[in-house]
Design a protein that fits this description.
Helix content: 40-55%
Strand content: 15-25%
Shape: elongated
CATH superfamily of the largest domain: Response regulator
Number of domains: 2
Radius of gyration: 26 Å
Order of helices and strands: HEHEHEHEEHEHEHEHEHEHEEH
């Protein structure tokens, strides 16, 4: 009888110890999860809007996998939905992440919301598009120097335009967006503002760019160059020129890359396009967001690469890898 009591007591002790170990393990897991670095990425549009953003997203995913952080992706659906991005930022602030990686839809309109992020103690990193915030805030920016890229594209177009007539138009993807405004300013500087007949905002919409291009070149036969400031606008302009059969008369100088860019380059409809490195941009922006918190790294401006690609060099080593990125779309 005494033996049975002792045996039962031992079993009770074993059960208590097992329960205690399970509780400790559970708390340990919860502790690890709760201390995992949290990053919220706020884009200006959905990632499936263009191949550029799909590739940037792939670069971010590599950094997330490499550094094992918790990351949430939030965005308005389209770049022109500035009010929607403001709402997204407010929701992100409520979630209290360690870092917000912001791709702003407007230089001025989003600035007060960027300030809110900083004032709540959340680290802010900017990617691709800058915002109008005080220099007193030491904020990291990762992206291409859009003005420099636009200026270079303008210089190339000017060199290739050997006729006395240099009348050209600019199709801007969205007025007020820093990348769009900077590229336009650079183009005017590199090509010559006096040769620009007008600049037209296309809401980063391929169909809008197509309609505007078609209307303008039918109305004015003196137009010989079209500058297009992003992927969707470039494709829209190229479609119009292809449909009207005016590739011999009109040259297109664009930005970004996609399967349609490649087709238009091969056909000689798109003369040159400035290719950024969205994969590099996405990876470095996420990595910098992590390093600022985990390694206490100082803020820094990181300028990502750009290349000029035309039919003559699109298959060269070093160029084709950027023009034909491999993106896992699972």
């Amino acid at each position: 009888m005494i033996y049975m009591k002792t045996n039962i007591s031992k079993r009770i002790i074993v059960v208590i110890l097992l329960v205690a170990l399970l509780i400790i393990a559970f708390l340990k897991v919860r502790f690890i999860d709760n201390t995992k670095l949290e990053v919220i990425v706020i884009n200006k549009c959905n990632y499936d809007v263009s191949e550029f953003w799909e590739v940037a997203y792939a670069g971010m995913l590599e950094a997330i996998e490499e550094y094992d952080v918790t990351c949430y992706f939030m965005s308005a659906q389209y770049e022109y939905q500035i009010e929607e991005q403001k709402e997204v930022i407010l929701k992100a602030i409520e979630m209290k992440p360690d870092v917000i990686l912001l791709i702003a839809s407007d230089y001025y309109e989003i600035a007060p919301y960027a300030n809110m992020i900083i004032e709540t103690g959340i680290e802010l990193v900017l990617m691709d598009s800058d915002v109008d915030i005080s220099d007193d805030y030491n904020i990291s920016f990762i992206g291409t120097n859009s003005k420099k890229a636009g200026e270079y594209l303008g210089e190339v177009a000017l060199e290739n335009t050997t006729t006395a007539n240099k009348n050209s138009i600019i199709l801007s993807h969205f007025k007020g967006v820093q990348t769009s405004d900077d590229r336009e300013a650079g183009i005017k500087e590199g090509y010559g503002e006096d040769y620009i007949l007008g600049s037209y905002s296309c809401d980063s919409d391929t169909e809008v760019a197509y309609e505007i291009t078609k209307k303008l070149i039918l109305e004015d036969e003196s137009i010989i160059n079209i500058f297009a400031t992003n992927e969707n606008v470039t494709v829209g302009a190229a479609r119009a020129v292809e449909e009207l059969g005016l590739a011999d008369r009109i040259a297109i100088y664009g930005f970004d890359s996609s399967k349609e860019h490649v087709r238009y380059l091969e056909m000689g409809i798109l003369d040159y396009t400035i290719i950024q490195s969205p994969y590099q941009m996405g990876y470095l922006a996420l990595k910098k967001s992590i390093d600022i918190v985990e390694n206490k790294e100082a803020a820094a401006n990181i300028e990502t690469d750009f290349l000029l690609i035309g039919e003559d060099n699109m298959y060269d080593v070093g160029f084709r890898e950027i023009l034909f990125p491999f993106v896992d779309k699972k």
